[in-house]
Design goal:
By secondary structure, the protein is mainly alpha-helical. The chain contains 10 helices and 4 strands, in the order αββαααααββαααα. The strands form 2 sheets. The chain has a two-stranded antiparallel sheet with strand order 1-2. A two-stranded antiparallel sheet has the order 3-4. Helix 8 runs antiparallel to helix 10.
C-alpha cells in the first residue's frame, strides 16, 4: 500500500515546512517536512526539494508498516500508522504495544496505544509535548475512521453500527487492590489498630500500678528507696585500715559509735558514689508514637478523600 493524500496532509500538518536546517526540541538537525537523514547545519532547500525528500522518506516507512503488520488494514489505518512511524521511527514501531495489539486483532487497543507516545527528552528531562499529544490524537482518530460508511440497516453488523443508543459506562479498575480508596483505608486501619493496641497496653499498665498501690510493675527492677541502689548489686567493701598500717578489726567486732562518727567522713570519701542508671520515659515514647500514628491516619483519610474526588472527576463514579 501507498500513503494517500489524506495521510500525507496529516504528516505535513504536524511536521511543518522548514527550508533551512534547524535543530528540533531534541537537538536533531531537521529540514523540509521533518527530514533528518541528510540534514546538516547551514543546509537550504526549495519547497520542491522538500516534497521530494518527503516522498523518499515515506517509502521505507510504508514498507516497514506492511512488513510488521500481519493483519489486513484499510487506507486510513495504514495512513495513520505511516504517520506514526514517520515520527517515532521503525524500530520504535517494531517494539510498540500498538503493533502487538493490532497483530492480535485488538484495533481499538492499538489506536489507544498510539497516544502513549507523547513524551520526549527536552533538555535532559522527559516531558509531555503538546504537539505530540495532538498528533497522536489525530493519528488515533484517522486510524479509527472507517473508509466506507457502514450499512446500519443490517442488524448483523453490530460492531460497525454507531447509531445504536449508547449509555455511559466509565472505566473501572481491575480489582479492589487497585482502588486507592481501599489502599488508603488499609493504611488508616493499620495505623488505627497499632495506636489502639498501644493505648490498651498503657491502660493495662496503669491499672496494674493502681492495683499495687502505686508500686512499680512486678517485672520492674527493685530499687532501695534510701540508697537508690539495686539490692542485688555487689556490695562495695569500705576501705581497709590496713592500708594505713593499722590492724584490721575482727569481722564480728562492732566499732564504737564514737569512732564511727569520727571516721565516717573519711570512710565515705574513699568510695565513689554510684551514678543513677539512665531511665527511659516509656510514656513519652508511646505518646510520640501515637502522635505519629495519628498523623498517618489523618494523611490516609485525606488520601481517601482526594482519591474519591479524583475518581469522580475523571471516572464519574
Amino acid at each position: 500500500m501507498r500513503t494517500s493524500q489524506n495521510g500525507i496532509d496529516l504528516i505535513k500538518r504536524f511536521e511543518g515546512l522548514e527550508l533551512e536546517a534547524y535543530q528540533d526540541i531534541a537537538g536533531i538537525w531537521t529540514i523540509g517536512y521533518g527530514h533528518i537523514e541528510t540534514a546538516k547545519p547551514g543546509m537550504r532547500i526549495t519547497e520542491q526539494e522538500a516534497e521530494a525528500l518527503l516522498q523518499r522518506d515515506l517509502k521505507p516507512r510504508e514498507q516497514a508498516v506492511g512488513r510488521l503488520v500481519n493483519v489486513d488494514m484499510n487506507q486510513n489505518e495504514f495512513d495513520a500508522l505511516v504517520s506514526f512511524v514517520y515520527n517515532v521511527g521503525i524500530d520504535a514501531f517494531r517494539r510498540s504495544t500498538a503493533r502487538r495489539r493490532l497483530n492480535s486483532g485488538d484495533r481499538i487497543g492499538a489506536a489507544d496505544a498510539l497516544t502513549w507516545w507523547n513524551k520526549a527528552t527536552v533538555g535532559g528531562v522527559l516531558r509531555e509535548v503538546t504537539g505530540l499529544t495532538r498528533r497522536r490524537a489525530a493519528e488515533r482518530a484517522l486510524f479509527l475512521t472507517p473508509v466506507n460508511p457502514p450499512i446500519v440497516s443490517d442488524g448483523r453488523q453490530i460492531d460497525e453500527n454507531s447509531r445504536t443508543t449508547p449509555f455511559e459506562d466509565p472505566p473501572r479498575r481491575d480489582s479492589l487492590a487497585g482502588s486507592r480508596t481501599v489502599q488508603g483505608a488499609a493504611v488508616a486501619g493499620g495505623a488505627g489498630a497499632a495506636a489502639s493496641n498501644m493505648g490498651r497496653e498503657s491502660a493495662e499498665e496503669l491499672e496494674t500500678m493502681e492495683a499495687n498501690g502505686g508500686a512499680a510493675p512486678a517485672n520492674a527492677p527493685l530499687v532501695d528507696p534510701e540508697t537508690e541502689e539495686d539490692p542485688g548489686a555487689e556490695e562495695v567493701a569500705p576501705p581497709s585500715d590496713a592500708a594505713d598500717g593499722a590492724p584490721a578489726d575482727d569481722a564480728g567486732e562492732e566499732a564504737p559509735a564514737g569512732d564511727a562518727d569520727a571516721g565516717g567522713d573519711s570512710a565515705v570519701e574513699g568510695v565513689a558514689e554510684p551514678e543513677p542508671a539512665p531511665t527511659i520515659d516509656t510514656g513519652a515514647v508511646q505518646s510520640q508514637i501515637q502522635f505519629a500514628l495519628l498523623i498517618l491516619i489523618l494523611a490516609a483519610v485525606a488520601y481517601i478523600i482526594f482519591a474519591r474526588i479524583d475518581d469522580w472527576w475523571h471516572y464519574r463514579r
